[in-house]
Amino acid sequence: MSVMVSTPVLHPASAVPSEAPDTSVPYELIELFFFAYRDFVGDPDRILADYGFGRAHHRVLHFVERRPGLTIAELLDILQITKQSLNRVLKELVETGFVESRTGTQDKRQRNLYATQAGRELAVRLAQLQGRRINGALAQVGPEAGEIVARYLAGLIDPSERRKVQDALAGPR
């Protein structure tokens, strides 16, 4: 697969070739990444829509299910969203019975988050959908590719965030 674009870019207004594109930009990979992400999240999006949920709900539910007892501060740090955004999504997940918030055992001001049975079932259902898509793609390139893809994706993560991501990837506590 070639990752460099060598054709001139046409601007619709003028229909005249613009300057030659920067051949160091991997346009094909960028676009493949967009399309892969669209389809990767598209499967869960259809299921989440039945509940009136979106991608933010999916991300919260995923990490709460994977890390029982996760604090709100830890979740904010992982997702890098505003407290206001998290509060809206979390409120909906709690009110609909997918997540429960418990007072911390060590610090009563702290709120620990847990997926309910319904939350675990939904999170696993969504992860299985995405897992099938990932496993299908890996099967096309061979069993050794999983480690290479993991290193590649890790390389896309901002170096200052890698430790936090490694902690989040640790899975259940």
Automatic annotation (TrEMBL):
User: Which key words tag this protein in UniProt?
Assistant: DNA-binding, Transcription, Transcription regulation
Biological process terms from the Gene Ontology for this record are:
response to stress
Q: Which SUPFAM superfamilies match?
A: Winged helix' DNA-binding domain (SSF46785)
* InterPro entries per record: HTH_MarR-typ, MarR/SlyA-like, Tscrpt_reg_MarR-type_CS, WH-like_DNA-bd_sf, WH_DNA-bd_sf
Under Gene Ontology molecular function, one entry of this record is: DNA-binding transcription factor activity
**Which SMART domains would you find in this protein's record?**
HTH_MARR
Which residue ranges does the record assign to the HTH marR-type domain?
Answer: 26-158
Q: Which Pfam families would you find in this protein's record? A: MarR_2 (PF12802)
How is this protein named in the record?
DNA-binding transcriptional regulator, MarR family
Q: Which organism is it from?
A: Bosea lupini
